[in-house]
Amino acid sequence: MVFLTPNGCLNGDAAIYADQIQRLDLKCRTIHIGYFIIGILFTRIIDLPIDYELNIMNCLFSALCIGLISLITWTLTGKELATITSSLTLIIFYSFNFNSLYAEVYSPQLFFFLLAVQTLLWNKSIISGISLALAFLITPSTIFYIPFLILLKPKIRTILIWFITFLLIVIIVLSPVYKEFLFSSRGIFSAFGKSLGFINALQKEINDLYNWNGILVFIVAGLFYLLISKEKRLFCAALFALWFFPFLLGEKYREVPVQLPFYAMLSVVSGIGFEYLLYSFKNKRLFKLSVILFFIISLLFSGRITYLKLAKQNKQIIDYRKNIFKLHQAAEPDYLVLCSWSNGVVFSHYIWGKIYSGKWINSQCLIGKCGDEHKIKDWSLLEKSMTQKKQIWVLEKPLPEILTALSLNNYSILKTFGGFHLANYYQ
Question: Can you say how many angstroms the Cα of residue 58 is from the centroid of all Cα atoms in its chain?
């Protein structure tokens, strides 16, 4: 994974994380305070560009996740083949890899969630509670996974110790910053009222699962085995809870993989399904060979699709970074950039080392999508720049409102490299 990850930002959030970690800032965006603490510690260990450091950190956490999935499968089944196939199932899953290669909060969150699962299976309630608290501090969607853990080990004393430990850690860490955590623009309450809607959420999750292709056969077989085994039905109910609560309460943004822990546990189910299919017909050698061959083909097919998608994504990140520096070298000393929020944050992070430099405008704000206050402020800055005859670069396809404004102020627009548009003043 480390060899696949690029030196660059996936999106504006990644640039914000890098900026905040560099400034050792734990007071802003406290919804991810756990991630910032880990990032600050990790980036003090190695000396590389900050974007590359955080991408590598995610890769390492993901590698540990694969180890934990193997350990969880072994603890639940005691079967070597189930253990191996469960980890292979996770390794080729696109959503897991996508969140492994780039600076995002979901890979570290998954690691601490899986650590909470494994330590709870070992009856280490305090360690499990601490692990879950760390997962929650990295991103609060962890709260949706609590029913799964309760059903996984439904012993009152165990759950009580575990939950009290979790609660104490969260309260201690968040006490100094609870207002920002709850009420800021990115706080807990800001997500209330937002939802993808049932159909969009379902479609999103079906698309995620479809990336497994043939591996889904083993997941279905594993679920069937869990349902027909009396001693495993509670685990099946726990898996349902792990899917149901995030789906019902957590599917608010298309880009947020709230179901990643569920998909990770489905990898365990895949290993169980493989073992079940392999030994359900004891004297059918041809059937066993068919099961093994089908698993290998499915693994290679899904793995290839995942690799090609990631290679394309990496190329886009690297090309965008190169074009940004090329633009900066080609531009006049004092220029203005118009683009979407994510591209603008990444641009400013690359060129000026800070996310808000005052030298770029969010084009969405110009058409009123950020509120009237931002619209008035940004149009004022754009009009001032046009009055000063500054060179203006538009990083995406120009919006009609922007084209009209530039044209009325004697600006001509030329498409250049990387899909960027250069607007120059003409007499």
Answer: 10
